[in-house]
Amino acid sequence: MPELHTDAEWQAVERSPEFRELVRRKKAFIVPATIFFLVWYLGFIFLTGYAPDFMGREFLTDGLTVGYAFALSQFLMTWVLGWMYVRRANRVWDPLAARVRESVEGTTEAGAQPSTRFRRGEVVTEHEEVPQR
Amino acid sequence: MTYIASVNGTALAVFAVVVGVTMIVTYVASKRIATATDFWAAGRALTGPQNGLAIAGDYMSAASFLGIAGLIFLFGFDGFLYCVGFLVAFLAVLFLIAEQMRNSGKYTFADVLAYRLKQPPARAAAALGTLSVVAFYLIAQMVGAGVIIEGLVGISFPWAVILTGAFMVTYIVLGGMLATSWVQIIKAVLMLTCGVVLTVWVLAKIGWNPINLFRDARAKSAEGGNYLKPGLFLSTPLDTVSLGLALVLGTCGLPHILMRFFTVPTAKAARKSVIWAMFLIGAFYLMTTALGFGTRAILGQGAEKAVGETGNFTVPTLAESLGGDFLLAIVAGVAFATILAVVAGLVISASGAVAHDVWSNIVRRGRDSEGEEVWVAKAAAFAIGAIAIGIALLGGEALNVSFMVGLAFAVAASANFPAILLALTWRRFNTTGAVVGVLFGVISSIALVVISPTVWPGPDSEGGALSWYSLANPGIISIPLGFVGCFLGTMLAREPTAEAKFDELKVRSETGLGADPATGTTLTGGGTRRRRAPATATATMVPPL
Questions:
Q1: Of B94, B244, B500, which is closest to A85 when you measure between CB atoms?
Q2: Which of A6, A44, A45, A86 to mutate to test the interface with B (most CBs of B within 10 A)?
Q3: Which residues in chain A are closer than 8 Å to B235, comparing Cβ atoms?
């Protein structure tokens, strides 16, 4: 298994502009999305606990309660946020992560052949998926 | 013995088919697995959709298949709250945990902690968290299996428990994670198909308009309009919030779910599998509306007796009224498959904690061979199975099942989740923090449940052992306590290596650099001799089954 050996080597990768860019881009989506889903979900939970009459109110049509519609919106939110995450991951984060790995391995991963690493002269094989560009 | 008289022949035949098919899968898997990666991670060669189905099969227990519809039938809206919590939880899994697990872990989530923390204490803490969650979850499932099989098929409770335990241990000892994964995939397909058939049938009965579910259910409920409102089951607001928190954060700490992310070749496949799981699990939970409200709408008060005190027999009662003895037998078989898939997943994750974390890395300090590790895992699976059977038989049918599942989620959210999240995100976090955090989480959630009204109903069935404490679910106190423990422990000690190694874990978990490769072992071939086969080999393989 390929290893960077010292903490300093890992630290160098962590401080590389490629890695910082990856983390920054991921945070830019994950932090707000996490806050959003927690607020929307806990809002539903708090209203269920503390405002049962509001959640039991029927609207639009006889039989459909605010609570059930709110619950359905949680399903929709989960699917939409999940889909948004995957879209960003495939289009933006995966290529960035591949760039970080390339910068370490000193070779492109095209062809997904076990590649030879250069650092410290040891020969290690690495197997990765072909990056989607 | 008297149990033979009441055995349902059709149900028994369906059982035999379920057992037969899963045993064939186990036999094939037993010929394929050769390495520890095959045994614990199915060769890391499942595809995203396959693992998505397996996650659905691993996650949705009898509580989801039978319990939630039962709660909805009995209490209306409140039952549906569980569906929402169980599903939204996967956003937390996707955003914070899934890909990081695949990138930096090997067989257990303790591997992730072990990159930066001192191995023996960190692994011991993770094993404690894992085994606590599995203990409560597993015993709940075993007792549930006994009660449900006794009720549906007529096999007596002790025999039902022993049979369930025996099959579960057989899957794991012979076929490891490869067999377990395919048992879970088969179960998920059966359960979803069963859900679709019942839902369409119910909708046909009520005139195809889903809103009629609510209108008819309300008309046929003794509670009238209140049936569609919150509060019939969850009557204490703070308890509702506490339960909601444990549901959404607990999934991130369930060891058998975390373990599933080690069975795919790449982070991309891990991500894909969560998305598949989200859609499959969400679809099933949507259908519980038709199953729960539908049973109320179609059968009304008349079914109250048949569904039992817990409502667990709601779906079987509905199936019998729609499709007679045959459909009842199918539902019984699916319920059995459901339980088998979940208990197998639980036991293999516990065997990982015992063999990989405790034996291999703490007792033997990594000096054992891979073969020895797998041998210990099989012995551990056997022992855990035997203990679970024993406790389920001793506790018997009277054991309160729902409080034990709730407790499992509370321990997972309070002990495992804080340690994993902080290890991945907080540079200052250290070994003392992980140990204190897990201890705080485990002890506080168990202690709070022990003094809760669920366990010790007071003399007037009002309040718990202590008059000032009335929470049934400990989450709202124990989850913050878990985080506080992590924080305090971290502040007690300075651990420069844990801080220096943070960079390594962060780079590994975000990029997949140095991730453990797949062996390429699947049910239909590949793998065993090609230990270092490239992960891309999966792309060319024929989909199994």
A1: B94
A2: A45
A3: none
Q: What DSSP state is assigned to residue B107?
A: S
| Chain B stretch 43-72, residues whose beta carbon is closer than 8 A to a beta carbon of chain A | none
Cα A108 from chain centre:
24
Q: What is the pLDDT of residues B355-406, one digit of tens each?
A: 999 999 999 998 989 999 999 999 999 999 999 999 999 987 777 776 678 7
Name the residue facing B228 among A1, A65, A129 (closest C-beta): A65
Cβ-defined contact of B95 to A129 (cutoff 8 Å): no
Domains of chain A: total = 1
**pLDDT of A2:** 52
d(CA B199, CA A24): 45
Question: Partners of B522 in the beta sheet?
Answer: B525
- CB distance B525 to B541 below 8 Å: yes
- Residue A65, SS3 per DSSP: strand
- B89 touching A (Cβ < 8 Å): no
Domains located in chain B, CATH noted: 14-394 (1.20.1730.10)
Which member of A11, A62, A114 has the closest CB to residue B215? Answer: A62
Name the H helices within B307-416: 314-352, 370-395, 401-411
From A70, which residue of chain B is nearest by alpha-carbon distance?
Answer: B84
Residue A1 in domain: no
pTM of the model: 0.90
Structure tokens belonging to residue A72: 């359905």
Residue A11, domain member (yes or no): yes
Distance (Å) from the alpha carbon of A21 to chain B's nearest alpha carbon: 12
CA distances from A86 to A32, A45, A70, A80, B267 (A): 16, 27, 24, 10, 11
Give pLDDT < 70 ranges for chain B.
1-6, 402-403, 456-467, 526-545
A128 occurs within a structural domain: no
